[in-house]
């Protein structure tokens, strides 16, 4: 009986240690994947914000050039406002997540 225990215990301990190491790396990989997804979303929002700013600037320049107001400025301003709201929501969600 002792011989069996002497053979089983090291294998059991090794198995538990390997399981623990694997679960540690799995948790770390999941956290890293979540961070990467957050970085991608942040980059997307930055690019969309730049696009909204450029379209608003272009519409303003067109109006100044023509000296008349048009739907272009209104739609560009609406688009910029929507993107600003989305960016703020994203930042608030990330801040709330990091507070926990």
Relative helix content: over 70%
Spans with pLDDT under 50 lasting ≥5 residues? Answer: none
Main sheet: strands, sense, barrel: none
User: In total, how many domains does the architecture comprise?
Assistant: 1
Outline type: rod-shaped
Write a brief caption for the model.
The chain is an all-alpha fold. The chain has helices at 2-66, 71-99.
Your description of this structure?
The chain has 100 residues and is mainly α. It has one domain. 94% of the residues lie in helices and 0% in strands. The mean pLDDT is 83.
How do the helices and strands line up, and which of them pair or pack?
Blueprint: H1 2-66, H2 71-99
Helix pairs in contact: 1-2
Spell out the key features of this protein.
0% strand; 2 helices; 94% helix; mainly alpha
């Amino acid at each position: 009986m002792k011989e069996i225990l002497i053979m089983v215990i090291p294998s059991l301990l090794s198995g538990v240690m390997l399981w623990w190491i694997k679960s540690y790396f799995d948790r770390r990989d999941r956290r890293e994947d979540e961070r990467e997804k957050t970085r991608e979303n942040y980059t997307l929002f930055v690019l969309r914000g730049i696009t909204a700013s450029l379209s608003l600037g272009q519409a303003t320049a067109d109006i100044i050039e023509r000296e008349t107001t048009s739907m272009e400025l209104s739609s560009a301003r609406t688009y910029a406002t929507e993107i600003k709201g989305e960016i703020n929501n994203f930042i608030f969600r990330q801040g709330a997540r990091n507070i926990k």
